[in-house]
Design brief:
Chain lengths: 94, 370
């Protein structure tokens, strides 16, 4: 649960009448929403380290790719992003 | 070296292992605080590759493991209240409460939802104005900013139906608790990388001075862990105790100032009960008075009596690094992931689960005691 996964910001949009800015972040093709409130200077195409839906730092591309590759190999990405599961019905909520 | 070829950089890992072997002249006991690191050490076979002189013990850095039994009972109670949607990270669901786990409550029809992010819980609250949404906010410093942000968002949307049940714990006071235990043999620490991505490293200087132990802020990948262990061993062999940062590529000395600001905005530091360990002073977060409306404990006035802990689970000793999981008489017998007696057998970051799933310990145990 304390892992953070690097991904690439694909779009940044404002939601709920502009009350929050939400980024779409691609984790090797899997798109999840992430808040950029802890990294307000992050831009589209930047790589960010995301933990439970919040980007916690901007990382360089080479580092992001290597870390992601490692996490994917070790089977940690799916677990951390909650995209397949040890509980059969969690998809309906994610 | 079974898994070495899968590492990000097998050659570098091999070099670190060789250097650890060359440097070390006597046994040293080192604790990795973070459960994510425990998981990585066991899953990647690093414990088997290290020379025998490196004795790694596993720390209390598993948020699911240290969440008090009483809070799980409270969460179950809230989930069974008619109008509550209880949202949680998946790991919490299997943890045994005194009567049942959240998973059992869910099977009985309680509306419990497994989420990836607390911000999703706020959106559920927005979409369900006639329901109460409670997020079970567990976690260390890495997760606390996201949970704090959920309250900030709920406040921004002026939601009246969102609250959090907090069990937020902090690493530095846990290191103190572990070192203050008379039975401790720990001589050095690997501090948790992503915790320091948020908080920075300054909190660890006083600990290095007070306990005269090396502390090395370390990442999660095998090469990170091996380098962190090497840095710790070098200090120990040289009779030094310094704070070092192995994970500088992700950890700035000052941390993430935006995250720290959000934490200070939303939370006050408070004493916290750690399951298996007891109350540690100043070891957690609670919501500030100005956000009291978002505190599930105050909102629902849940009065669940403290239930006694199972006395056969030695999770406290395991999490303080005094005993290894396989030294627990229940390990792999009465206590398995399907029938857990304690939280460390449930969470993917719990030491007992890590040993059960990934290490050869169980087979060894079975061959020794058929
Ligand atoms: S093996 Fe089970 S009973 Fe023993 S300490 Fe671990 S969780 Fe507790």
């Amino acid at each position: 649960m304390c892992l953070a996964i690097p991904g690439k910001i694909t779009t940044i949009e404002s939601k709920y009448d502009g009350l929050v800015q939400v980024a779409k972040v691609s984790f090797g093709g899997i798109i999840k929403e992430a808040s950029l409130e802890m990294v307000p200077h992050a831009k589209v195409d930047d790589y960010v380290l995301v933990h439970v839906g919040v980007a916690i730092s901007v990382v360089d591309e080479a580092e992001a790719r290597q870390t992601f590759k490692y996490l994917e190999q070790m089977g940690e990405v799916a677990e951390e992003l909650n995209i397949h599961g040890f509980l059969p019905d969690q998809k309906e909520y994610s | 070296m079974k898994f070495l070829s899968e590492y990000r950089d097998p050659e570098v890992a091999r070099q670190y292992l060789d250097e650890i072997r060359k440097t070390i002249t006597r046994p040293w006991t080192i604790m990795e605080v973070c459960g994510g690191q425990t998981h990585s050490l066991v899953k990647n076979g690093i414990l088997d590759m290290l020379p025998d002189e490196v004795r790694m013990v596993h720390g209390p850095g598993c948020p699911v493991c240290v969440t008090p039994l009483n809070l799980i009972d409270k969460a179950v109670y809230l989930a069974e209240e008619k109008n509550v949607i209880l949202c949680s990270f998946g790991d919490m669901l299997r943890v045994p409460g005194s009567e049942k786990s959240l998973l059992e409550a869910k099977a009985n029809g309680a509306d419990i939802r497994i989420l990836y992010s607390p911000l999703e819980a706020v959106n559920i609250a927005r979409d369900n104005p006639d329901r109460e949404v409670v997020f079970f906010a567990v976690g260390f410093e890495t997760t606390a900013p996201a949970n704090a942000l959920s309250v900030v968002h709920a406040d921004r949307y002026e939601l009246k139906n969102y609250s959090i049940l907090t069990s937020h714990v902090l690493v530095p006071p846990a290191i103190e608790a572990v070192m203050d235990d008379e039975a401790t043999q720990i001589e050095g620490f690997l501090a948790a990388g992503h915790v320091c991505t948020i908080m920075g490293i300054s909190e660890y200087y006083p600990l290095v001075d007070k306990y005269k132990v090396p502390i090395v802020v370390t990442g999660f990948e095998p090469v990170d862990l091996l380098q962190g262990i090497l840095m710790t061993v070098k200090q120990l062999e040289n009779g030094e105790h310094k704070l070092e940062n192995q994970y500088a590529r992700m950890v700035r000395p000052e941390g993430n100032p935006h995250a720290i600001k959000t934490l200070e905005e939303v939370f006050d530091i408070t004493d916290r009960m750690w399951r298996g360990i007891g109350v540690i002073p100043g070891s957690g977060y609670e919501l500030k008075a100005k956000y009291a409306a978002y505190d599930a404990r105050l909102k629902f006035d849940v009065n669940i009596p403290e239930a006694p802990e199972s006395d056969s689970c030695i999770a406290g000793e395991v999490m303080k690094g005094i005993k290894k999981p396989f030294e627990c008489p229940n390990f792999g017998k009465a206590c398995k992931p399907e029938t857990p007696l304690g939280a460390p057998m449930v969470s993917s970051e719990g030491a007992c689960a890590a040993y059960y799933h990934f290490s050869g310990m169980l087979e060894e145990l079975e061959t020794v005691q058929p």
